[in-house]
Amino acid sequence: MKLLITGFEPFDKELINPSWEAVNSLNDNIDNIIINKLQLPTVFKKSYIKLFEHIEKIKPDIVICVGQAGGRYDISIERVAINIDDARIEDNEGYKPIDEKIFEDGENAYFSTLPIKAIVQELKKFNIPASVSNTAGTYVCNHIMYALLYYINKNKLNIKGGFIHVPYTTEQIINKPNTPYMDKNTIIKALEICIKTSFSFDNDIKISAGKEF
Ligand code: PCA
Asked: Ligand 1 centroid vs 210 CA: distance in angstroms?
C-alpha cells in the first residue's frame, strides 16, 4: 500500500511550516505502508500542479495533504473543501485572489473521503486533541484539498483523499503570547495515527463530531 503525504512551505513570515516539519520526519514505512513525502509551494497556481504530477508518478492508494492552521489548538481533520479562493494575504509569489473559482467545471464542494471521525476517535484514544473541522478556510490549504478531490473525482481514480490542519509548534509561538501550539513530536505521532487509521477503516464510523458553530 502506498501513501502520498504532503506538507507546505513556510508562509506569512514564518520560518518553518509545522506541516512539512512533521511530514518530513515520518518514517518511510509505517505498518508496511510506503510513505511518499512531498513539500508543496504555498502558491495557489503551482501547488496543485506539483501534487497532480506526483499522484501520476506514485499512484498512491491514499493522499493526505497537511497544512498549518496557526491559532487552532488541535489536529483538525477537514470535512469539506469549497470551490473558492479568497485570500487574506498574498501567497509566496505575491498572488492574492479574491472570490475566484478554483475550477470552473468543478462542484461547489467536495467532501474528504478519509474516515474523518474514526481518525478523531483514534487520536483522542492517544490523548491527542483532535476534531472534525467544517472549514479548511479559503486560502492555499482549501485550494489544495479542493484540487485533490476534484482531480480524483474527474479522473474517477480509486484514491482516498483528504486534508489535515495542524497547530503551530513550540518554536513558532515564542513571541506570540496566549497562542495555542503543539509539540512537534506530538504532531508526528498524530500523523502516524491518521495514516494507520486511514488505511485500516474502509468506511467511516457513525459518531457525532458536529459543532453548532
Ligand atoms: N496553511 C495555509 C496554506 C499553507 C499552510 O500550511 C492554509 O491554511 O491555507
From this structure: 23
For the Cβ of 11 lying below 6 angstroms from any atom of ligand 1, the answer is yes
C-alpha 139 to ligand 1 mean position (Å): 7
**What pTM, to 2 d.p., does this model score?**
0.98
Which residues is 40 bridged to in the sheet?
A: 8
The three cell numbers locating residue 108: 461547489
Distance CA(186)–CA(184), nearest Å, equals: 5
Task: Point out the ligand 1 atom lying closest to the alpha carbon of residue 20.
Answer: 6
Cell 491559532 appears where?
Answer: 71
* Residue in the structure block whose three cell numbers are 505502508: 33
Joined grid coordinates for residue 9: 512551505
For the CA of 67, the nearest atom of ligand 1: 6
- Relative to the CA of 7, which ligand 1 atom is closest? 6
pLDDT of residue 26: 98
What distance, in Å, lies between the first and last C-alpha atoms of the chain?
A: 37
Element holding 40 (H helix, E strand): strand 33-40
Cell 513530536 belongs to 185
Collapsing DSSP states into helix, strand and coil, what is residue 131? strand
Grid cell, residue 197, equals 487509521
The residues of the chain scoring below 70 in pLDDT are: none
Active site residues: 78, 141, 165
Q: Cα separations (Å) of 84 from 22, 145, 208?
A: 28, 11, 27
